[in-house]
Amino acid sequence: MNFLDLFASLQAWIFETLVQPVIFFTGLGEFTEDAFEGVEWFLIGVCELLILFVLLRPLEALIPVHRFNDRNARWNDFIYTALHRLGIFSLLIFVSLDPALDALTGVLHLEGVNPFNLDNLWPGLVDYPVLVFIVYLVLLDFFDYWYHRASHQFNWWWALHSLHHSQRDMNLWSDNRNHLLDDFIRDVYMGLIAIAIGVQPGQYALLVVISRMVESLQHANIRLHFGAIGERLLVSPRYHRTHHAIGIGHESQGSGTLGGHNFAVLFPIWDMLFGTALFSKEFSMTGIRDQLPSPDGRSGREYGRGFWSQQSLGLKRLFGLDHRTATPMNAQTDRQTGFNKEAS
């Protein structure tokens, strides 16, 4: 029995033994097909977690950027990753949006408006499925770049996204360390874009899996880069670590205003085209400047140590209920950022 047969058998067993009885007991039989697909993506998420642990965890032990100050940080980030990889949030939102957007498209057609669709723009492309997949991957990454950049431009958005940057012990599970509201907004945004350009559900699921596996590599605590050329083709751990660097990744030219560098999710070409690329040879320490103690002895801003406190503080920042202001920016604060100047 090969892996695919074993996977299919396990999916069928879990569905028939655990899921189907619950569906029938609760009278939700109309969702049987969706539940069966949900089991499939649950198992895909399990495979992702196993692959990440087997491949990246040893690298974090062999070639780490630094030793962790808080060992519990990794476990807390794992909770976020498990919720996302096993909860199939992105796929569920995509499937939910698809009928709504189909209805909207029908209304627009009646009004004589034909929405943009990649298949209509380049009809012959559908004969080359691999090329279609690559085009979709590049297009979605382009829109993801602007979403990510926008989250660093507006104070209300940064209030949510800053949770992601507050991890000072960044690790292989840190990619999904996000505020749930921020994730919901992003998933809706990316789902709408994908449907609008003609991505099918099966394609979208594979696009999501590939993207988030690469993003997990980017966040891993490993001293790794792709070389002068490779760094400009695919976002590496070093390139993305610069985005998370204290005083660099989330600030415009180190001025203390929102902005930053290296917003690209997969392909650095977007940073290069739009002037936000910073190809540093340093492996900088990660975090947010206002987490650091101030020169007058005040403690840094608190972003929460556990899942619920992090979610709660994010909402407080969003609604202006967290009155802790940013630490003044000066030379002493710069010295506390802890940059590691050693190039690999």
Features:
344 residues, mainly alpha, 0% strand, globular
What can you tell me about this protein's structure?
With 344 residues, the protein is an all-alpha fold. It has helices at 3-26, 32-62, 72-87, 89-110, 118-121, 129-150, 155-165, 180-196, 201-219, 227-230, 237-243, 269-273, 307-318, 331-335. Helix content is 58%, strand content 0%. Helix 4 (89-110) packs across helix 9. The longest helix has 31 residues, at 32-62.
Query: What's the number of extended β-strand segments?
Result: 0
Low-confidence stretches: 325-344
User: What percent of residues are in strands?
Assistant: under 5%
Helix run count: 14
Oligomer: single chain
Order of helices and strands: HHHHHHHHHHHHHH
Radius of gyration: 22 Å
Helix content: 55-70%
| Structural class by secondary-structure content | mainly alpha
Q: Report the principal-axis shape.
A: globular
Summarize this, please?
The protein is mainly α and 344 residues long. It has helices spanning 3-26, 32-62, 72-87, 89-110, 118-121, 129-150, 155-165, 180-196, 201-219, 227-230, 237-243, 269-273, 307-318, 331-335.
How are the elements arranged and paired?
Layout: H1 3-26, H2 32-62, H3 72-87, H4 89-110, H5 118-121, H6 129-150, H7 155-165, H8 180-196, H9 201-219, H10 227-230, H11 237-243, H12 269-273, H13 307-318, H14 331-335
